[in-house]
Automatic annotation (TrEMBL):
<dbReference type="InterPro" id="IPR020568">
    <property type="entry name" value="Ribosomal_Su5_D2-typ_SF"/>
</dbReference>
<dbReference type="GO" id="GO:0006412">
    <property type="term" value="P:translation"/>
</dbReference>
<dbReference type="Pfam" id="PF00380">
    <property type="entry name" value="Ribosomal_S9"/>
</dbReference>
<dbReference type="InterPro" id="IPR014721">
    <property type="entry name" value="Ribsml_uS5_D2-typ_fold_subgr"/>
</dbReference>
<keyword id="KW-0687">Ribonucleoprotein</keyword>
<dbReference type="InterPro" id="IPR000754">
    <property type="entry name" value="Ribosomal_uS9"/>
</dbReference>
<dbReference type="GO" id="GO:0003735">
    <property type="term" value="F:structural constituent of ribosome"/>
</dbReference>
<dbReference type="GO" id="GO:1990904">
    <property type="term" value="C:ribonucleoprotein complex"/>
</dbReference>
<dbReference type="GO" id="GO:0005840">
    <property type="term" value="C:ribosome"/>
</dbReference>
<protein>
    <recommendedName>
        <fullName>30S ribosomal protein S9</fullName>
    </recommendedName>
</protein>
<keyword id="KW-0689">Ribosomal protein</keyword>
């Protein structure tokens, strides 16, 4: 699988995501996901889709 890219928008906000084969590394604005989100509930919500599909350790998310 090559890198997959998606863009989401709401009003004037834009979110972009790159999903690449890897080891489960999450990066947001140059920071680790736990450092970026700070709240445990937001962190768990962000990784949940990859946990449910058993893909957490198969992809890097940027």
């Amino acid at each position: 699988m090559a890198t997959e890219h998606a863009v989401g928008t709401r009003k004037r906000a834009t979110a972009k995501i790159w999903l690449t084969p890897g080891v489960g590394k999450f990066t947001a604005n140059g920071k680790g996901l736990e450092e970026y989100l700070k709240r445990k509930d937001l962190f768990l919500a962000a990784i949940r889709p990859l946990e449910v599909t058993d893909s957490l350790k198969r992809f890097d998310v940027r």
